[in-house]
User: What shape does this take?
Amino acid sequence: MGNFIFCMNSNHMTITTTKNMTNDVLLGDDIDAVTTAVVLATFGHQVQIYSHKQRLQATLEKYSFEHQVMALWQLYVNKGCIEVSQLPQKIHTDDADMSVWQNICQSKVEAIWWFVNDTIQANQQLVNQQLVNQKKQAQHDAIDWTTNDWTDAMVTACNTSEHQSVAIVLSGKQPIGYFHQLSQQLHRPWVYYVPFVFLQDGQAYHSMLSPFLWLLGEKTPNSGQRVSSLTLLQNHAKQSEVADINTMEFARSGIMAMLATRVSYMNELSRLADAHKVDITRISHIMGLDSRIGASYLQAGWGFGGRTLPVEMQLIKQSFAQTHTDSRLITAVDAINEDQKELIFRKFWQYFDGLIDNKTVLIWGGSYKAGSGRTQNSAIHPLLRLLWSYDIQTLVYADKATEELRLTYLQSEQSEQSQPNQPQSVKPKLTLLQHPYERINDAHALFVISWDNAQAVQVARINDVAIPVFDAKNCFSTSQVAQLVGDYVGMGR
Assistant: This one.
């Protein structure tokens, strides 16, 4: 009789024996891999995740705002539902290395989930370090280090494994056609591609447990049902679609590019709304009533950020370039988005007729979207740089993104303290706050970059100081704007 493992999901506790438990191997260390491991464990699967442990630990720290994922991760690790192993440090395909890869492709495993972006990035870091080390030893000509070595090792291991019934599930963001080509290099028929178009920052667990759209690319048609993890996730999806891998790659890029296009389109309309003195929030509401359009991604603001849409836009532009296909619309969408991130600063500069030097401003939000703790490609970064160029002191309440901003801008303070002769001017003029209204009396203006709508804005607190509000995401409702005694500047309002 096998050992018992207790795995708890959101509704009940399941008791599964290791003898009969479905086993999955995951290769990756970003939030996609972590969330997948947690959800599969929730479904009663035994999960072995291979990662670069330092990168995995960094992910767990960066995504601490994903409270449910992190709580379940710790529970399942403690109970043995999830086991963590170090990815092989060697990336060559010689006999000494292949034993490790062969161990990953063992027979008792039902599926190997390969998060390609994670392994490519980790491999690049390893390559860079090896190059540095080799240069130090003046031996850099001894080995040809390339970014494909890790992938080649994995492909070789899969193709030479005796266990060809193990399914390979690929995931990640690469130019159109990459995963189709990779699936062809893998000689086994049971290869699949799952694009994570459904994963939402701040709601990672529930968005994967019950995705709004599940897409599955198959190398072999009508074979996905043989993999229980794929079947479980598909059955829990509100909508699902299955096609060949090449089609699903194209669909992924098409979906993401469309979402980005809608955002940039509304942002361009918001500039026209400013000129016509029309409230763009009313316009987007009316447009969303048309069933041919729908209401999603029609909110004007500073644009899109995060780790998904900006990357997808670069990838689809790359795909256009590789095929020598004109991409004027995609190029324009990207250009509008980048310019939009600086628009709120220009409105601020115009409001004060350029007399902004040495002021103090309060900023609410730092993440690229409400509910997230990530600041990647957020408008907070160009805004801070522009404000600091005018010697403006910035008081920032970033909520879940506080730690990431601290690590980005303030982690150098310790080294500065060890160098007392360093000029004061090089230090960022940044103060992180614990409360949104902390030091509001010191501020000459309030910027809103992102704001959790569940948190009610206390208009009375703002009215006490009567400072102008520069709302880069149009977070304030029409009624809240009407209650302000000071000026309000939004995006197309």
